[in-house]
Each structure stands twice: as C-alpha cells, then as structure tokens.
Amino acid sequence: MPLIPEEPQIHESAQGPRATPASGRVAPTPRPVPGPRPAAPPRPGRPGPLRPAPPAQRTPRDAAAAKPGPSGPAAPAAPVAGSAAPQIQLIPASVEGALDAAEEAVDLLLDAGRAPGDVLVLTTGESHPWATHELSFGEASYWAQHDAGDDVFYADAVAADRAAVRPVVVVAVNGGSEAVAATALSLAHTRAGALLIVCGDPQRINTVLGAKA
Fold it and tell me: Are 151 and 162 in contact (CB under 8 A)?
C-alpha cells in the first residue's frame, strides 16, 4: 500500500507495529542519524588491490559492554507470535542518498544489538560496492557468504530471489525502473521476518505501490 508521510515525528526505533492512518498508509520515519554521517571503517569486502580475507562475523559495537540506555536506539521488536507481516519503516531519501540512508540504518541496527547475519540489504539501482567486489570472484563464492548467514549481505533486487528470509530487510531505492522497484519491495516484504526498512523518495515509492495496487 502507498507509504505517505503522515506522522513525521515517529522515530524509526519505535518498537511494534505502527498505527495505520485513516488513509491506510504507513507513516515514514526520519533519517536514523541527523546531520553529516561520521566516517566509518569500510565494510568487509570493499574493493581494494587484493581480495580481503573472508569477512569475519561482525558483532554490534559496544554491545557486550553495555545495553543501550533510554536515549539510545532500541532494537527492533521481534515479530508477534502468529503475525506474518513485518513492521514497516520508511526513511525518506533521494535516489542519490538512498544507499547512504540504508547504511546508516544498518549501523543503527548493529549498534542496537542486531546480529550482522540478521540483515539483508537490497538495492534497486547501482549495486553496493561490497556486492560488486565479491561478485568479481564468482557467484558461487558470493552466494556462499549469503548461505553462511554470519554477516550483513548485500544484493541487487533483480537477482535476490534466491535470498533467504532474514529478520530485517533494508531496501535502498537508489535507481532502477519502476518495475524493478516494485519487484524489490514485493520481494523484501516476503523476505523480512520482523522489520522492513525502505529508504527512498516517498512519492516514488507511493507511485510504485499504487501501480501494483
């Protein structure tokens, strides 16, 4: 269903299903991290002169030291028993900024306590640099990392039909045709066990979903 901004003050870390406005649309959430994004170390497998060693399982930063306080981000709620629909969150972003917004969402998820293997990131336009790099060594090696399930996995929406269900799916609507965007959103909804985060232009997303309705 179309996702139109109705309640911009709702923070993305709110737990549990969102209330659906009278129009039947899901309200978007603000960008997870305001202001300039701080520099962060590259994710495993970023392009370089030599292929890096297989990515080690990432652990949430400082998760072992302390749990997030009341002012810190909260881990997304687990799905309610018997519920098939994931919680949906919309992060407004331009086509050029959608991938950065998705990366910020992933960082928050890991900081909040999500295991790296819980997260699948899909792109509708340009591939994530990690996916591009790993695919240069062959699809068998690339998908083996997906099957291992011990790290965040990045995939193009048009080739992600073999991706398994993960608790959290993040979609970066960073380009591609309306058909590709529609396919990505439909696929992501079936692959998200607890939480679906969509990063992109709300108007475009509404247009895509309206065309599917």
Answer: no
For the stretch 70-103, pLDDT in tens is 333 333 334 434 456 899 999 999 999 999 999 9
Q: What tens digit of pLDDT does each residue of 43-52 get?
A: 554 444 334 4
| Beta carbons of 55 and 137 less than 8 angstroms apart | no
What would the two tokens of residue 161 be? 């039909």
pLDDT at residue 59 in the model: 41
Find out whether 194 and 168 touch, Cβ atoms under 8 Å: yes
Q: From CA 154, how far away is CA 150, in angstroms rounded?
A: 13
- Residue 116's region, left for phi above 0, alpha for psi from -120 to 50, else beta, is alpha
DSSP code, position 175: S
**Beta pairing partners, 88:** 196
Cα–Cα–Cα angle for 183, 187, 188, rounded to 5 degrees: 115
Residues 155, 122 contacting (CB under 8 angstroms): yes
**pTM for the whole thing?**
0.64
Q: How far apart are CA 118 and CA 136, in angstroms?
A: 24
Chain centroid, CA 155 distance in Å: 11
Structure-token pair, residue 124:
């509708």
Distance CA 31, CA 118 (A): 21
Residue carrying the six token digits 């737990």: 15
